[in-house]
Each structure stands twice: as C-alpha cells, then as structure tokens.
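[retry 2/3] Superoxide dismutase: previous attempt timed out, resubmitting with same input.
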Amino acid sequence: MKTSLALPDLPYDKNALAPLITGETFDYHYGKHHAAYVHNLGNLVKDTPYCEMPLEAIIRAGYDRGDAGLFNNAAQHWNHSFFWHCLSPDGGKAPTGKIGTYIKRDFGSFEAFREAFSTAAVKLFGSGWAWLVENAAGRLEILPMKDAHTPLTENKKPLLTLDVWEHAYYIDYRNARPKFVESFWEIVNWDFANDNLK
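[retry 2/3] Superoxide dismutase: success.
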C-alpha cells in the first residue's frame, strides 16, 4: 500500500461501521488523531528532502536515524491509513481465498488464529498495534508492536492490523479493550488481506 503525505479519504462513510465503531469515534480517531499525525509530519518534512520521498522511505529513514518525531508521525500516518482498509461494512465471517488457506496452514484453524490474535491485541501493554504479517519465508505471524512501530521496519509484509491505542475505542467501549477486539472480527476486511498477499 502506497500512501501520500496527505490525509486519505476513508474507504467508507464514517457511520458505515456503527454501532461497532461509531461516527463519533471516526470524528476523533480519524478527524483529529490521524489528521494530527499528518499535520505534524507535514511540518517536520517541509523544506527538507523528505518532502519528496515516499512515506515508507520516510518511516525507514526516521527509524534508522533514531529521529523519534519523524518516525512516530510518519509511521502513525501509515499505520492508520492501512488500518482503515482493514475494516469494512461488508467484512467479518471466516477468511476465504489465499488468506484463509494460509491461516489454516500456519495456525491450524481460523479459530486458533482468531484466539491468538485477540490475545496478542488484548495483552499488548499500553498503546500499539496487533499485526498479521507475512515473513520472509512466506509464513504468517502475529506481531504485537508497541507505540508507532510497524512491520515495515522488520522487513515483514503487513496483511492486517488492529489499532489498540486507547483512542481507537474509548468513546464506544470506554476501557473495555477486549470488547473492541471482539467487535473487530465482525468487520475485518479479508479482501484487503488477500490483496496484500498478491
């Protein structure tokens, strides 16, 4: 997925996932949090060589150089842009296609994968992301990552993610992260995961 330095449009109406994720949550999570990362990144790269670079390259440069401000804002912009596509009003159900085959191959069953992914998301201490990735050997892994960290810096291909920063769920679920994680399975976008495997 290639992402520009601008705030992308949501791939659905902000009310399309209600009541699991409400329009009010999108107003804050997308309209304020994600937009702030984009705004901050724009200020950081203005009048620098970074402003001509792809977002993915900015993420790697910030990470490699230990520039926390650049890395955090670029990575959070990319992570959120990716995350919106991991959700769909037509999502949920069991995975089909290549992603379904690979999940069964690498986790034994969809049920085993779902339990392992949910556990990783719920137990991640503090803020961060739960990722489903494909590693260099072509196998699937669950990768819990703190704060803004992303599989892009681990040379692993992101397939799906779930944002477990508190701002992702506090309006709709208060502090009940497990309920938010449970709702993810009703709107997860398996078509997007399959596209990422191509």
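[retry 2/3] Superoxide dismutase: Residues 33 and 167 are 8 Å apart (CA to CA).
[retry 2/3] clearing retry counter.
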